[in-house]
User: Fold Septum formation initiator family protein from Hymenobacter terrestris.
Amino acid sequence: MRVGELFGRIPRFLRNFYFLTGLAFLVWMFLFDANDLVRQYDMYAKWQELQGDREYYLREIDKVKKDRAELLSSPELLEKFAREKYIMKRPGEDVFVLVPQEEN
Assistant:
């Protein structure tokens, strides 16, 4: 077979200049461009992960705001929080910290 016969067997729309140019453009965009499909997928996955982190941090901020409002409203709660979290004490007091024994 000659080259002309092989070229003639290819459907006409596949030999069209605009089809070939469009196909080359799509191949370039999907495979070789700086924003190819793989990178777009990775960026989308990262965005989803960051959205989940954002929701977590917003919930934590709400908890901290609620705890802060409670602590600032009552001196007894503030003292209890300071004693439990930061092991603070009054002058003349002794504080004993009990650490649970680890089991092997």
In short: The mean pLDDT is 86. Residues 37-73 form the longest helix (37 residues). The helical segments are 3-9, 17-32, 37-73, 75-86. Residues 46 and 82 are 39 Å apart (CA to CA).
